[in-house]
């Protein structure tokens, strides 16, 4: 796989005594959508949170191995975690807009990066909301609280908020799992458009969603990476028996 | 139908019939009646306080009689020497002293007056026919004074003094007749608080300014400190640190205010005097610092709860955007906890506003008009605390103190109402969108 964005070497993660990720090694390509699938509790979210070091927030977590982004080990002592997260954005399973106005939600990222010019901020907010395909719905109510939006709108607002800090990589943890079919398809379309500019890693429960949106698919099982390959291949003729069983719905 | 559980619920009219659940019914009734009771008690307290202050709202004759009674009973209360000892500061400023030389000059002779006027009711009746209505109640009220002054035989001096006092009483009477009950009222908006004199003045402005000054100083100190401390424990401190710090500060909330007052009186006053070099050792600043000590634990505890209640998902979202820890704390967690922190500040203000013991011990208790934070002040609550024990039931001074009590009540009520319905809404809008 040429044009590798992220390279993971022998990564293990422990929650206290319990090992949640077991010697994961994989490569994630640039400007593609990679889907992580697998049954609940297999460590998909845990792995995703390793990529932008969100697991640092959990005191009991211990990580071994290497996580190279553009060839740089992000777990190196000299790497600043804040700067990592600026380049690697994250959209959470449960939409979590700030209890602020819609405008402030999107402008928050740029503001903490030192952009205070109103016209500049306006532009960033509009561009980000347009990219997240939600500008037309929200442009007249930018001062309203984000908490009053529907679940689908909130999630797209969260995507816009992530885009506003112009990351390289966007991590999405089951972004559509709590949404209705229409909102889900909007998010999927969005993912499709965004991969032009960003490297996207998306965790999903939903086989069809993985098949529809992703270029590559990784199958996790019990904290191990079973298989990673082109989505087409994984869904038509997977190499591993376990993958086939899972995809055909025989377990999971 | 599954019968694996002993619960057998059939969909029949019988089983779905409305049931009367006695325990739930009782529990509900008990809860509501207790709630109702506590609300009633709060209201009753207010009405009692207010009721005691009512006489000053009475205009016309009855009030006249009251004022005179009080002017008459004033010297009585002077007879007991304790009055002077208890609040020397309020008499400290000179102009006040000038105003009541008679009262101050010869306390002994004044106490002598009483047996006099007691012995010769005729002369008294000449002077004040109206006061005749309640001579009995008067004697009932202050039996101790009479007990003390059994020594009657000082005939010569008494006559002299009585002639002076007769003149005074004459003057008083004239003044009262001219101004009527408005006298009490009109003095409210003045600055002099001289409740115990032949010409009592109840200027509330000085007290009001004192109260506000101390409150502002205390809140300027306590607010930022407590909120920053709360922010630290909820956002930065490790779990173990938090488990140690929080209970300790919460224990401080139950610290007796008399101890804090004592500490301020002995330690803080000297300490800050050495730093700032002001003249009056006890002043608004010292009082403010001491009250801040009392208010910090309250503000801290409640804001800490509010900050900890902010969902972790907000923090995560902010961190995932590349915000640092303190940016997250200041720009996400703090605004999200606005309502709770606001409530904490209000409670803090309430505590400072009504704090009596610390005010009494650390503020100097002189109702001066000044914007200088290093001048002595006298607060509403301290005034009540200091003087209530020495007033005579039913007298104007007594009523005015209760009126001040009502004012405290009303102030905090208005403050809370405005904060709740106006400021809070605005703040929330500002920080959290419409
Ligand atoms: N904060 C945590 N502390 C301890 N164990 C955790 C924590 N988060 C997840 N786990 C455990 O790690 C395993 C993987 O969880 P997760 O990554 O959330 O799975 P997935 O997202 O694939 O459903 C699960 O067994 C879960 O119980
Ligand atoms: Mg998950």
From TrEMBL, chain A:
Its main location: membrane. Residues 6-247 form the ABC transporter domain. Keywords: ATP-binding, Cell membrane, Membrane, Nucleotide-binding, Phosphate transport, Translocase, Transport. One of its GO terms (cellular component) is plasma membrane. Transmembrane segments: none annotated. It holds the Pfam family ABC_tran. GO terms for molecular function: ATP binding; ATP hydrolysis activity; phosphate transmembrane transporter activity. GO terms for biological process: phosphate ion transmembrane transport. It is a peripheral membrane protein. CDD domains: ABC_PstB_phosphate_transporter (cd03260). It is found in: Cell inner membrane. InterPro entries: AAA+_ATPase, ABC_transporter-like_ATP-bd, ABC_transporter-like_CS, P-loop_NTPase, PstB-like. NCBIfam families: 3a0107s01c2 (TIGR00972). PANTHER family: ABC TRANSPORTER I FAMILY MEMBER 17 (PTHR43423:SF1). Part of the ABC transporter complex PstSACB involved in phosphate import. Responsible for energy coupling to the transport system. This is Phosphate ABC transporter ATP-binding protein. It comes from Flavobacterium cellulosilyticum.
Automatic annotation (TrEMBL), chain B:
The chain crosses the membrane at residues 30-50, 202-231, 252-276, 282-302, 329-353, 400-423. It is a multi-pass membrane protein. The keyword Cell membrane applies. InterPro entries: MetI-like, MetI-like_sf, Phosphate_PstC. Pfam families: BPD_transp_1. Its main location: membrane. The keyword Nuclease does not apply. Keywords: Cell membrane, Membrane, Phosphate transport, Transmembrane, Transmembrane helix, Transport. GO terms for cellular component: plasma membrane. Part of the binding-protein-dependent transport system for phosphate; probably responsible for the translocation of the substrate across the membrane. NCBIfam families: phosphate_pstC (TIGR02138). This is Phosphate transport system permease protein. It comes from Flavobacterium cellulosilyticum. The lineage of its organism: Bacteria, Pseudomonadati, Bacteroidota, Flavobacteriia, Flavobacteriales.
